[in-house]
From TrEMBL:
This is Chorein N-terminal domain-containing protein. The keyword Transport applies. Coiled coil: none annotated. Residues 1-98 form the Chorein N-terminal domain. InterPro entries: VPS13 (IPR026847), VPS13_N (IPR026854). It comes from Meganyctiphanes norvegica (Northern krill). GO terms for biological process: mitochondrion organization; protein retention in Golgi apparatus; protein targeting to vacuole. It holds the Pfam family VPS13_N.
Length: 112
């Protein structure tokens, strides 16, 4: 049960940034309330929310830890920790970016 809940939390909050979050990747210390994933690749579109024409060329998180307050699941915060973030980003290939997006982005920065 805890495994499924931990996977849901990780996918819900980190799924837009990290590739392939599956239960078989989890290392769970049930008594400690700690879940770990190692060497999780970043998604190519992980930087999309920045609204800039950037993409991840390569990248991974060395370790993702989810600390779960086992005795107080609903009243205490769950904590997500990233260790060893490796990221190489570059411009999105021009044919993958719409002209309208570039115009809108440039126009919004001129008027701010």
């Amino acid at each position: 049960m805890l495994e499924g809940l931990a996977t849901w939390v990780l996918n819900n909050y980190l799924g837009q940034y990290l590739e392939n979050l599956h239960t078989h990747q989890l290392s769970i210390g049930l008594l400690k309330g700690e879940v770990e994933l190692e060497n999780v690749p970043l998604r190519k579109d992980a930087l999309r929310h920045l609204d800039m024409p950037l993409e991840v060329r390569t990248g991974f998180v060395g370790k993702v830890k989810l600390q779960i307050p086992v005795s107080r699941l609903r009243s205490e915060p769950w904590v997500i920790i990233f260790e060893q973030l490796y990221l190489v980003a570059g411009p999105v290939k021009l044919n993958e970016v719409s002209t309208q997006h570039i115009y809108t982005h440039a126009h919004s920065h001129i008027h701010t």
